[in-house]
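Question (not urgent): is this output format expected?
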Amino acid sequence: MLTEEDARRLVLAEIDDVRSHVTYDLQILRVEALPFGWIFYWGAVWDGQNRQRPRLGGNGPFLVDRENKRLIRTATSIPIARQIEVYERRLRREAHARNTAAKQAAQQP
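Got this back:
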């Protein structure tokens, strides 16, 4: 099981990959707790000269699942609430499949 600090390290590693393609600093801007883990919003740091943050394309938030240690990059074109809903549905399907498999295994002679 991941802690929030473990999840933060995973996200920062992904952000480091993007840093090599841009000329400005990137950081985690906000973290929200979710029933299954966290959502990490990230982006460019404010530019002190222009008093505005550089715009990034494709910097959708990261979902991190504490139980199965998944790091999911979200799309910027789909509302994040919808993507969280889809992921939670996926988790329910996976849990159902595990329960079904366990019942079938228990019934085997």
